[in-house]
Amino acid sequence: MRYFNLRAKVSDDLDAFRVDTLEDLTLVTGSRRKIPNTVLSNLRSLCLTDRPEIEVASRFPRLERLRVGAWKGSDLEMIREGEHLVSVHLEGRRQAGSLAGIESCGAVEEFVSINYSIADSLPLRSLGGLREVKLLAASPTAPHGIIRFSDIASSSLGKIWISNASALEGFEILKELPRLQEVRLIECRLGDAELQELNALSKRVDVRVIGSKE
Predict the structure, then answer these.
(1) Is 77 exposed, middle or buried (0-12, 13-18, 19+ CB in 10 A)?
(2) pLDDT tens per residue across span 54-93
(3) CB-side neighbour CA atoms (13 Å) of 42
């Protein structure tokens, strides 16, 4: 078996983690049972609701795509040393925390966090191949801390979405990104200088500012 998709309320779904031929696994079951101490060395894509022992490097060493719903974490240590990860998508529970752990995942091209307030964007600086970044913390999630565009300014970057940021820095670097196509800032704190920097971007860049705060 190479693919398995289960989207139903199931309390015990642990047998799925024992099928070592799986390449693509979706378990949207709501189960909170601890992932067993097995290794799925063929797994490339994993989608599941949050639960204990999501440890990418030790349990899913070849994983490329990870999506976690109802995620309750306060850092990204679960993906540390996930050297094959290309896409990480986390749907939080309106909590605040850090990005610590992602700095060791150098292959990440797409990072999306929803309802998760980050303290600082610095851990993203080492990800030189970023193509898409979405840092979404819509109210009542607390505002993001410091987000620097220089931390996500990969030459491959095409899309940036940020919501509810209290401190955005380094707008000037956006004009140096050759593949940038879309910037969406929602309920972010922006002054006149920042808005001028956005207006100065190339016509090829779709810039949308929604509900900006002074």
Answers:
(1) middle
(2) 999 999 999 999 999 999 999 999 999 999 999 999 999 9
(3) 12
